[in-house]
Design goal:
Helices cover 48% and strands 9% of the residues. By secondary structure, the chain is of the alpha/beta class. It has 5 domains: 18-147 and 751-768, Restriction Endonuclease (3-Layer(aba) Sandwich); 163-328, P-loop containing nucleotide triphosphate hydrolases (Rossmann fold, 3-Layer(aba) Sandwich), CATH 3.40.50; 334-400; 401-506, Arc Repressor Mutant, subunit A (Orthogonal Bundle), CATH 1.10.10; 636-671 and 680-722.
C-alpha cells in the first residue's frame, strides 16, 4: 500500500471549531459529552430558568441534584478563559452551595484554558463552598470527542467542525470522504433530532430503517450522518445506492457488516413501478442479510411510499409493514426547529449585515407550521434569497411557500444557468460526461437558445447550491436535493411550448420515467404529456431500444400511465412491441407484460397470438404453480378463451389442489430459514382465498385446503426451529456486534429546575446568530 496512503501524525489537541456552533448548541454538546464520558444521567435546563445551572448530574435513580454544570461559550476562537469570566456566576454559585446543589461544580468552556487560570478559578470556587470544582476547556473537549466514536454519534455535527482526518484515522477518513463528499460541508450545521435518535434505535433493534418525510424534511441528511457513523466501525463497508437494482450488484446475503444507504428507494420524484417490483423480491433476501450484521437505511417521500406500500403488501420488510422501523422525519419540536434554523443561518454564506437584519425575525420563522430543514438551509444561502426582503412577512413566506420562491429564483438565473439545470433534469437528475453532446442536450440548448459549450463552462457557478459534482474533474452533476427537480417540473407545467419541445428532444427513457398522460391519474411531480403530443410521443417511445430493462419501463408506462389514445398509437407504430421480452415477476398480478396485454386486449389492440400466449401463461402459473393472484382481476380473466374460466376452475379442482401439498413441501425444502417463514407460503393462502371467491370449493376441496394449511403450519414451525438451531451454533460475537453508535439512543431528558428567586429575561437562541460580539459567552 506504499504510495497510496498519506501518513501523518495527529496529536490529541487538533482543533475543532467549537467557537462556531453557537451558545445553545455548545450547551447541548457539553451535556452529551458529560453523559457519555462520565456515564451518569444528565438533565438540561431551560434558558432563563436554570438558576445558574445549564445542566446537572443526578446522583442515581431517584437521587437529588449532585453536581452542577455551567457552560461558557465564546464566538472568538482565539480567546482564552480569564479568571474574571466567572464573576457573573458567583452569586449563583453561592445560592447553589446553600441548596446543596454544588458540591461538584463543573465549568465547561469553548475557550482555551491555561493551567494557572484553571487553578485560580478552582480556588475561588472552593472559597465559596464548592467541594469539587472542575474547569474543562476546549482542549479537554476536543480530546474527549476524538477518543470516542459513540460520542460523535451523539453529536454528529463535530464531523464538520474541522478536518475529518483530525477525527478519523486514515482508512476511515478516506472511506468517509468518498461517501460524504457533498455532505461534509453541511455536517457542522446538523442537529440530531428525535427522528435521528429513533433511526439509530431502529437500526440497532431491527437492522433496517425507513425514513419518511416530505421534500426538504432532512431524510437524506440523516442517511448521510448514519452512514458516516457506520463507516467508523472496523470492518464495515458503506454503500450508497440509487435504487434496488444496484442492491443486487453491491451485496451478497452472506457478506457481513455492510451498511446500505438507498435514497429515494421507491423513486425520486414519482413512484417507479419497476422499483416497487424489484423491492418485492429484494426484501426477501434482505431478511437473510440482516442476520449477518448487514444494515439497511432507506428513504422515501411519504406520498411515494404510501402509494408503494399496498403494492408491496406482505412482500414488504416485516418491520416496515407494522411500522416498527419506520421513522417520520418531519415531526420536529420547537427547540429542534430553532436550532436547525440557527445553524443554517449562522453557518451559511449570508453576509453578517444580512444576518443581523433578519435576527429579530427568526424566532417567528422557527415557529412556522410545516417548517422544513431543507428550506432553512436555503435561507442561509444567498443564492436562494435574491430579492427576498428581510422582513417577518418576507421570511415567513419563504418558509411557507418554498417551491414558489424556488421557482422564482430559478427564473432569475438567466438562460445559460437555467439550461444547466434543465440538462440535469432531463437526464433524470444525473448528467454525466457522456451526456453533454447527446440528442437530449442539444434539444435543451436549442429550446433555450444557448450554446452547450457555454453551459458546460458555467455550470460550476451553481455548484453547492443548485447542483453538486459527484466526483471532481469531469464527474456526474446531480441536484443536491430533488426539490430542485420539483421546481423545474412546476416551471415546465406553466410553459406548454417547453414541454412540447422537451418531449421531442429528451431521451425516450426519460419520458417513460418522468411523465404521465393527460387525463390519467395524476402522479405527483410528474410532467404531463398533452393529448396533442400523443403522435410525437408514440413515435418516440415505440422506437426505444429492445432491451429487457427498457422494455420493462415501457410496459409499465403503457400499462399504467399512458392514455388509451397514446397506447393505441404506440401499438400502431410498432405492432411487434407486445412480443418483446423483459424480466418477469413471480406474481402474475404484478407482471408488467401481463398487465400491458390485459389492457391492450380490453382496447381491442391485442393480436390473437399474443392473447393465446398470455392465456397459456396464466393457466400454467395457476395449475402448475398455484399462482392465482390474477383471478380477482376481470382484465386478466378476459384473456382466457370462451369457456376458459370454467375449464381453469376444473383444472384447479382436479389437478392443482391435490398437488398443492407437494408444492408446499417443495417450498419448505428450499426456504431460507433466515427469511420470515410465513412469506414462503403467501401464494398458497392467496390462492385459497381466490378459489373461494370464484366458487370452485366443494367439501373435498375444503378438506384439501385444511390439510394444506396444517402442512404449512408444520413447515413454518420447522423453519423457526432450524433458525434457532443455526443461531445456537453460531460462535458468540459472530452475529450482532455492537456498532459504534449503539448508545446514541441515550439522550438527556428535558427538565425544569426549581425556579430561581428572580428570572432573567429569556435569551433567544438567535441572539448571537450574526456573531457581532465574539467575546459574548455564558
Amino acid at each position: 500500500m506504499a504510495g497510496t496512503m498519506r501518513v501523518r501524525a495527529e496529536g490529541p489537541w487538533s482543533d475543532l471549531a467549537l467557537h462556531t456552533i453557537g451558545w445553545k448548541a455548545f450547551q447541548d454538546l457539553c451535556a452529551q459529552v458529560c453523559e457519555e464520558v462520565l456515564r451518569r444521567p444528565v438533565q438540561v435546563y431551560r434558558e432563563a430558568q436554570d438558576g445558574g445551572q445549564d445542566a446537572v448530574f443526578l446522583s442515581g435513580p431517584g437521587g437529588g441534584h449532585d453536581a452542577t454544570i455551567q457552560c461558557k461559550h465564546s464566538a472568538d476562537g482565539r480567546r482564552r478563559l480569564r479568571v474574571g469570566d466567572i464573576a457573573a456566576e458567583l452569586a449563583s454559585v453561592d445560592r447553589l452551595v446553600a441548596l446543596g446543589q454544588a458540591k461538584t461544580y463543573i465549568l465547561m468552556t469553548s475557550m482555551g484554558v491555561d493551567a494557572p487560570v484553571a487553578c485560580a478559578i478552582r480556588a475561588r470556587l472552593r472559597a465559596r463552598g464548592v467541594a469539587r470544582p472542575h474547569v474543562l476547556g476546549r482542549e479537554w473537549l476536543i480530546r474527549s470527542i476524538r477518543a470516542r466514536a459513540r460520542l460523535r454519534a451523539l453529536v454528529p455535527q463535530v464531523y464538520g467542525l474541522g478536518d475529518l482526518g483530525a477525527i478519523l484515522d486514515e482508512r476511515m477518513a478516506a472511506q468517509s470522504r468518498a461517501l460524504l463528499e457533498q455532505w461534509l460541508p453541511k455536517l457542522r450545521s446538523y442537529v440530531p433530532t428525535e427522528a435521528h435518535r429513533r433511526a439509530v434505535h431502529a437500526l440497532n433493534e431491527h437492522g433496517a430503517v425507513l425514513l419518511l418525510g416530505n421534500p426538504s424534511a432532512g431524510k437524506s441528511t440523516i442517511g448521510a450522518i448514519l452512514s458516516a457513523m457506520a463507516s467508523e466501525e472496523a470492518g464495515c463497508t458503506v454503500l450508497h445506492l440509487t435504487g434496488p437494482r444496484e442492491l443486487g450488484d453491491g451485496w451478497n446475503p452472506n457478506d457481513r457488516k455492510r451498511f446500505f444507504w438507498i435514497d429515494d428507494a421507491f423513486g425520486p420524484n414519482v413512484m417507479r413501478d419497476e422499483y416497487v417490483q424489484d423491492w418485492s423480491s429484494a426484501f426477501r433476501k434482505i431478511e437473510a442479510a440482516l442476520s449477518h450484521g448487514n444494515r439497511f437505511l432507506l428513504t422515501s417521500r411519504r406520498h411515494i411510499y404510501q402509494r408503494a406500500k399496498p403494492l408491496l403488501g406482505q412482500r414488504n420488510l416485516a418491520a416496515f409493514v407494522d411500522g416498527r422501523a419506520v421513522v417520520d422525519v418531519g415531526a420536529l419540536t420547537g427547540a429542534e426547529r430553532a436550532q436547525i434554523l440557527y445553524n443554517h443561518v449562522a453557518f451559511g454564506g449570508q453576509a453578517p449585515a444580512w444576518k443581523a437584519s433578519v435576527k429579530p425575525c427568526l424566532d417567528a420563522v422557527a415557529e412556522v407550521d410545516g417548517f422544513l430543514p431543507g428550506v432553512a438551509e436555503r435561507l442561509g444561502d444567498p443564492a436562494f434569497t435574491r430579492g427576498l426582503r428581510p422582513t417577518v412577512e418576507g421570511l415567513l413566506r419563504f418558509m411557507r411557500e418554498p417551491r414558489e420562491h424556488l421557482v422564482e429564483t430559478i427564473g432569475s438565473l438567466g438562460d445559460t444557468l437555467r439550461a444547466a439545470l434543465m440538462l440535469v433534469y432531463v437526464h433524470q437528475g444525473r448528467l454525466s460526461a457522456d451526456g453533454w453532446d447527446d440528442d437530449t442536450s442539444r434539444a435543451v440548448a436549442d429550446l433555450l437558445g444557448v450554446r452547450l459549450a457555454d453551459v458546460r463552462n458555467r455550470i460550476a457557478e451553481l455548484a453547492g447550491s443548485f447542483v453538486v459534482e459527484r466526483s471532481a474533474g469531469g464527474g456526474t452533476w446531480t441536484f443536491p436535493h430533488p426539490t430542485i427537480g420539483d421546481a423545474l417540473t412546476e416551471i415546465l407545467r406553466g410553459q406548454a411550448h417547453m414541454v412540447a419541445a422537451l418531449l421531442r428532444g429528451i431521451a425516450p427513457e426519460n419520458i417513460l420515467s418522468g411523465f404521465v398522460s393527460e387525463g390519467m391519474p395524476a402522479a405527483r411531480d410528474a410532467g404531463i404529456i398533452p393529448a396533442s403530443m400523443n403522435d410525437v410521443v408514440a413515435a418516440r417511445i415505440a422506437g426505444v431500444e429492445d432491451r429487457q430493462d427498457t422494455n420493462r419501463s415501457l410496459f409499465l408506462f403503457l400499462a399504467r400511465r399512458a392514455s388509451d389514445d397514446l397506447l393505441a398509437r404506440v401499438v400502431a407504430a410498432d405492432p411487434g412491441l407486445l412480443d418483446r421480452a423483459t424480466w418477469r415477476t413471480e406474481r402474475a398480478a404484478d407482471d408488467p407484460w401481463l398487465n400491458l396485454v390485459a389492457r391492450a386486449h380490453r382496447l381491442r389492440l391485442l393480436p390473437e397470438t399474443v392473447r393465446a400466449r398470455a392465456a397459456a401463461e396464466l393457466a400454467a402459473a395457476a395449475v402448475d404453480g398455484f399462482e392465482l393472484s390474477f383471478l380477482p382481476d376481470p382484465g386478466f380473466l378476459a384473456l382466457l378463451p370462451p369457456g376458459g374460466l370454467v375449464a381453469l376452475g376444473l383444472e384447479l379442482r382436479t389437478r392443482a389442489l391435490p398437488a398443492v401439498a407437494g408444492l408446499i413441501r417443495q417450498a419448505a425444502a428450499t426456504a431460507d430459514p433466515e427469511e420470515d417463514p410465513d412469506r414462503n407460503f403467501e401464494r398458497f393462502e392467496e390462492g385459497f382465498g381466490a378459489l373461494a371467491d370464484i366458487g370452485v370449493l366443494d367439501d373435498g376441496a375444503e378438506e384439501l385446503i385444511e390439510e394444506a394449511r396444517d402442512l404449512m403450519a408444520e413447515a413454518v414451525h420447522d423453519l423457526v426451529q432450524r433458525r434457532r438451531e443455526r443461531h445456537a451454533l453460531t460462535e458468540p460475537g459472530d452475529e450482532e456486534e455492537e456498532w459504534a453508535f449503539a448508545s446514541a439512543t441515550t439522550i438527556p431528558e428535558i427538565a425544569a429546575a426549581p425556579p430561581p428567586p428572580r428570572e432573567r429575561p429569556r435569551r433567544s437562541i438567535f441572539s448571537d446568530v450574526d456573531r457581532t460580539d465574539p467575546t459574548d459567552g455564558r
